[in-house]
Specification:
single chain, 8 helices, elongated
Length: 157
């Protein structure tokens, strides 16, 4: 029983120390998605969906919930954002080639149709991120129109 008590004290101490060493937050001010929005020209409905559903993990600016101030949750969220931006970063759109832009948009359709995005753990605390069938279709329709721009720019001249 003494060993369990010692382990519990060590874990408590580790959790307390973790509160003082937090991961860096993903915060960028300004219109960090302007180039993406200008190029792909989503309808207002889709812009709102992207803002409420995608940008927290797939851009350079995350709106953090209050519970992000508690470790180890802050580390878990930082990892999700890092992974999300590694897959697709709307703020970094200008640095993607046309081929990569086309591929990223193709992946958007795939994850929406497979209900893989938004993540379930995100929608648990962000009810506005739960997509209806109509919203999913609006995204898919917009992506298909946007992909044409990048597909045409890949054709050999």
């Amino acid at each position: 029983m003494k060993i369990i008590k010692k382990i519990a004290w060590v874990l408590l101490l580790v959790l307390i120390v973790m509160q003082f060493y937090r991961p860096e937050k993903n915060l960028e001010h300004g219109n960090h998605t302007a180039i993406f929005l200008k190029e792909t020209n989503p309808p207002e409905e889709v812009k709102l969906i992207l803002k409420n559903t995608c940008y927290d993990c797939h851009s350079n600016n995350t709106k953090y919930p209050w519970y992000n101030n508690i470790a180890p949750v802050s580390y878990w969220l930082a990892d999700h954002v890092k992974h999300g931006k590694g897959e697709l970063n709307f703020s970094d759109w200008e640095n993607y080639s046309n081929k990569k832009k086309d591929h990223k948009l193709e992946e958007v359709v795939e994850v929406i149709e497979e209900n893989a995005m938004p993540l379930k753990e995100y929608t648990w605390t962000h009810a506005e991120a739960r997509l209806t069938d109509e919203q999913k279709q609006a995204i898919v329709d917009w992506v298909k129109k946007s992909r044409v721009l990048y597909q045409l720019n890949q054709q050999p001249q």
